[in-house]
Amino acid sequence: MQYEVLDISGDAGIKAYGKTCEEAFANAGMGMYSLITDIGNINERQEIGIEVKSDSIEGLLVSFLNELIFRFDTYGFIGNRIEVMSLKFGVTNKTISKAPSPSPSPAGGEGNNIAPPLRGGDKGEGDLCGFTYEVLSMSYELKAKIYGEEFDIDRHERRLLVKAATYHNIRVEKTGDKWEVEVIFDI
Question: In the chain, at which end, N or C, are there fewer CB atoms within 10 A of the end residue's CB?
């Protein structure tokens, strides 16, 4: 089995495995679906695509699983197969600027005059209260296809009502030659 259900007081969890991170994510999704119903009774009648982004690998897992929950809650769609098409990560470069603060007008007059720069610069360098700097941060993106059908109360057993994937004790790591993910769900 590519996942196991974790019995947690008041909640439910999944521990999933894979040869790749993509496979571990897909198996976590299937494990979550198994909490909702018997996935052996789900047919592949539809295919949907999803895309999620985050600034951490753990956040990507939570976003991915919460997107699956959203599709189930909103459209009744439940999968019996998940194919992670891509899982990318990289460094993003973001420029952050803060405009200088207004200063009082000369001679006690009213107005929103901007304090002049201490020295030149077209990006506000040297402004009394302004700044510009660049931030490097990680970004993660996942694209997947989910195969399944709309949940039919007459044909599909209803198990747990999974509300959300949480960050509580979340874990995504490579151990030896396999990936392991662990996530707890609010039910």
Answer: N
